[in-house]
Design goal:
Arc Repressor Mutant, subunit A; about 230 residues; homodimer; six-stranded parallel beta sheet; two-stranded antiparallel sheet; alpha/beta; Rossmann fold; DNA-binding
Chain lengths: ~230, ~230
DNA sequence: AAGCGTTTGTGAAATATTTCACAATATTTC
DNA sequence: GAAATATTGTGAAATATTTCACAAACGCTT
């Protein structure tokens, strides 16, 4: 049986991989964390289809990896399978969700309400995944006409207060490249610990802050390399 | 000097890494390809700032990697530096662009004009990176009110003809998850060789087709893991 | 044109990740 | 309840990637 697929995760996930250092906890490789998210989504689909248990072979196939890799990934934080049978779908889901820290709803803010920022605001895909964009900020906070945006769009000046009051730990950064580093610094000062960066620059952040980059142009460029004949 | 940064590339980039098999050409690791894209963007910024030459140390710092890694990456496809001086910014840019296949403009189509698809259509960031979304397709191709979309929005039925006529090799897939695999199959049949998939499922595609995934929820989930205290 | 200071390019070492192979252990069948 | 079947968990091997260390090569200065 072949498990090969050309599918690969989103763009940035493989570039710079600082070691995962969690004081007192077992180190889980960065790539494993990404795969855990994928397993979680596959498990959700299996549950919808009424399956109670799943083997590593079946789940691995759904996730596009090899069964041994799946088992090694899970071994990083416990053993929950039943030999001869497989994994309990519900139990495995909740253990992975616990491990990822997504078992509770995370408030997220968005900074930079331009073209892309606006699109992300109106995108409803986050909610059912445990995240909610609760507000947006922009240097020029005018509400766009003709758009059904549920979230308030606020000025940058009220951002520190808002972050503190709502305990915001994660931000989506969709400002233009030239101001991205400056805004990121501002976010870090306010206590934000995770930044999802859409600006096409390499952010420099303190060691205890995590910045993930999503760069659509780089994704396309990557494709264009592989499709050359 | 420290080069450490928590910045990392977009989500999917590191999960499943099939070996790069290019008949007759030297194998370049997938991660190297991603970094080449980053170097290219850093070089563009350096050129804007009027620099003619750059050392591996300076460029690596800008890209958030170590100098040795940058040199090893470049060594995959030639030697262009001048010892004691560094690299010629313009020459290195064009060599990398050649290698990535972005020296010429690539026509791209978008399939699935929902919330996210619409956002990507109105996003102007691709053009200056060598890509142009020349048309969009949707099962229900109505033109959105109140939106300045330059591209035609066409029905799925005319897609095969369009792809053939315009020599389209790359597609952005932003349809809902349940229909993503089916549409992907359709694209592959039409001759599309590279798919940038925004649907939250693992696409199965033939070996000679490349599918890169961008999953914003997974990116957020990844952040949430690292910011747990 | 010789010497000095810099910076590349690269073999080798170190590290990380994936895959293999199989023992251990459960379920199912008869 | 014993045998057959299935599937996990994991040490070890294989593979891949990153980093080191340094020789080679160039520009610049005098």
């Amino acid at each position: 049986m072949k498990y090969f697929t050309n599918a690969c995760p989103a763009p940035g996930a493989g570039l710079i991989l600082p070691r995962v250092k969690k004081s007192g906890r077992i180190i889980i490789p960065r790539k494993t964390i990404y795969r855990l998210s994928i397993y979680l989504r596959c498990l959700a689909r299996l549950k919808e289809n009424g399956l109670d248990t799943v083997s590593s072979e079946a789940l691995a196939k759904a996730a596009g990896v090899k069964p041994t890799q799946l088992r090694k990934d899970l071994a990083c934080f416990g053993t929950f399978g039943t030999r001869g049978l497989g994994y309990d779908v519900t139990e495995l889901s909740s253990r992975i969700a616990d491990e990822l820290g997504t078992s509770r709803l995370q408030p997220v803010i968005l900074v930079g309400v331009g073209n892309l920022g606006l699109a992300l605001l109106s995108y409803r895909g986050f909610e059912k995944e445990g995240f909610e964009i609760i507000a947006a900020f922009d240097a020029n906070p005018r509400r766009p006409r003709n758009k059904q945006i549920a979230q308030p769009i606020l000025g940058m000046d009220v951002m520190p207060k808002f972050i503190a009051e709502h305990g915001v730990k994660m931000a989506i950064l969709s400002v233009p490249a030239p101001s991205a580093q400056e805004v990121a610094n501002h976010l870090v000062e306010c206590g934000v610990a995770g930044i999802l960066n859409f600006a096409p620059i390499v952010l420099t952040v303190p060691e205890d802050v995590m910045a993930n980059n999503v760069n659509l142009a780089i994704e396309l460029e990557n494709l264009s390399y592989f499709i050359r004949e």
